[in-house]
Amino acid sequence: MAIQNGLKAPEFTLFSSDKKEVSLTGFAGRKLVVLFFPLAFSSVCTAELCEMRDNISLYTDLDADVVAISVDSPYVLARFKDDQHLPFQLLSDFNKDVSTAYNALHETFSYNMRGVSKRAAFVIDREGVIRYNEVLENPGKIPNFQAVQDALQAIE
Questions:
Q1: CA distance 109 to 106
Q2: pTM confidence score
Q3: Which residues form the active site (predicted)?
C-alpha cells in the first residue's frame, strides 16, 4: 500500500544506537518526525542530520520528537551519533523492513549497493496518522524542513 497523508503510519520496532528497542507505539500521544537517510558518515546525510541537530529547538518548541532511520547497524549509528553530537535517536533498519514499509528503500543505490534507505521525512500526529510525507528519489537532496515544521504546527 502506498504511503499517503491521512493514513495510519506503519508500525515499527527497531534497535537504537543505544541498542534499545524503540517502537512507533512508544510515541503515542506525541508528534513525531521520522527521517530516513541512506548511510551514516556520508556527506549529505551528515549535513541533513546536523541541520536537524542545529535546529532541534524548533522541533522541541513544536512538541515533537525526532528519530532518524537508516540501514546501518546500531554500532555504526552509535559512532555516528557520538561523532556528530546528535540529540535524537538513530534507529537501525538493518533488515530493511521499515524502509520497505514506508516505501523509502532504494533497490539500487550508488556503486550498485542494494537496499539502502531513501532520504525521506514523515510527520506523524499524536494518533499515529501521517500528516506529511516526502520521499526523495535523489539522495543528494535534503527534505523540505520548513514543510515539516509547517505540518507539525498544523497538528493540535
A1: 6
A2: 0.94
A3: 45
Q: Which residues are catalytic?
A: 45
The span from the CA of 134 to the CA of 105, in Å, is: 13
CA separation for the pair 26, 11 (Å, rounded): 10
The number of domains in the chain is: 1
Which 3 state secondary structure label does DSSP give 130? strand
How is residue 97 written as a grid cell? 523492513
Helices 74-84 and 43-54, axial angle in degrees (round to 10): 60
What nine digits make up the cell of 4?
Answer: 499517503
pLDDT in tens, the chain (156 residues): 578 999 999 999 999 999 999 999 999 999 999 999 999 998 899 999 999 999 999 999 999 999 999 999 999 999 999 999 999 999 999 999 999 999 999 776 655 657 789 999 999 999 999 999 999 988 889 999 999 999 999 998
Q: Is there a domain that residue 21 lies in?
A: no
Contact 41/80 with Cβ under 8 angstroms?
Answer: yes
Query: Letter for the amino acid at 73?
Result: S
Cβ within 8 Å of residue 74, ≥6 positions away: 15, 16, 17, 18, 19, 92, 94
Asked if the structure places residue 26 within a domain, the reply is no
